[in-house]
Design the sequence.
């Protein structure tokens, strides 16, 4: 009888532990977290150490024997920051590259002045210029500007929620694995030829507060598969969860690949000052 009594208590406790949270409530909580996070993360700059490796598709030599695939590598050091788009309707991440393969970037000050202090012909042109500047040192056969650590958080923004379907399950008593699939024509990510690249992936969410602890974003077209994974960790000095590592992989239909790994450190607040001299 003692055994049956203990078993009954155990079985009664299982449903409470495994109870799935209401998905809409969880999405509300995660959406509120991302909205507050974007406001808080503005004004934060991090130093990014970023390595990209390109591997060409394997082929054959003139004799018909297998030839070793050619490779290319690039090491970048940059400051990463979140900026408000000139139109004021969205956030953008900007990669300010200051070192390429150990050599300093020469035109950095001039480039920053042109991007942020000299108005473009249109706000959209300035947005495009910022995105292009962030991607100017990427290598490989993919012209990309999606290799940004907090990009996936856009999926959880309240204004984008209607364009995705969500499902998931508990990973533990405190964590939830939230899957998403994009279900719209005007996709979040598009090819250079403006073709849709529907995205899917998942987040690890803290059930207590909606905090995002990791993300995986996958976008695919007929010729390309892009995958970006990001992990977050607490930055004690700022009392803020920040991206710590980003891993990416691009697989092309010809068999070539691009792999990247970025780590983030030296998080600090930045201030913009403008000095004027009257002659």
Sequence:
């Amino acid at each position: 009888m003692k055994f049956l009594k203990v078993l009954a208590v155990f079985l009664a406790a299982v449903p409470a532990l495994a109870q799935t949270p209401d998905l809409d409530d969880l999405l509300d909580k995660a959406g509120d977290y991302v909205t507050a996070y974007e406001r808080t993360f503005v004004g934060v700059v991090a130093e990014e150490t970023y390595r990209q490796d390109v591997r060409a598709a394997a082929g054959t030599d003139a004799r018909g024997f297998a030839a070793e695939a050619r490779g290319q590598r690039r090491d970048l050091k940059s400051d990463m920051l979140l900026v408000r788009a000139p139109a004021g309707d969205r956030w953008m991440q900007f990669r300010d590259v200051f070192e390429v393969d150990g050599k300093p970037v020469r035109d950095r000050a001039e480039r920053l002045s042109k991007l942020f202090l000299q108005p473009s012909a249109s706000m959209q042109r300035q947005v495009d210029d910022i995105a292009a500047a962030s991607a100017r040192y990427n290598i490989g056969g993919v012209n990309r500007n999606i290799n940004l650590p907090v990009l996936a958080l856009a999926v959880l923004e309240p204004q984008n929620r209607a364009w995705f379907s969500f499902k998931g399950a508990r990973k533990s008593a405190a964590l939830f694995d939230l899957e998403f699939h994009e279900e719209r024509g005007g996709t979040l990510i598009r090819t250079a030829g403006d073709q849709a690249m529907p995205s899917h992936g998942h987040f690890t969410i803290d059930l207590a507060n909606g905090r995002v602890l990791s993300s995986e974003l996958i976008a695919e077209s007929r010729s390309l598969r892009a995958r970006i994974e990001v992990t977050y960790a607490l930055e004690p000095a700022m009392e803020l969860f920040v991206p710590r590592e980003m891993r990416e992989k691009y697989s092309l239909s010809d068999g070539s690949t691009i792999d990247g790994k970025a780590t983030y450190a030296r998080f600090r607040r930045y201030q913009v000052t403008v000095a004027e001299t009257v002659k």
In short: The chain has a mean pLDDT of 82.
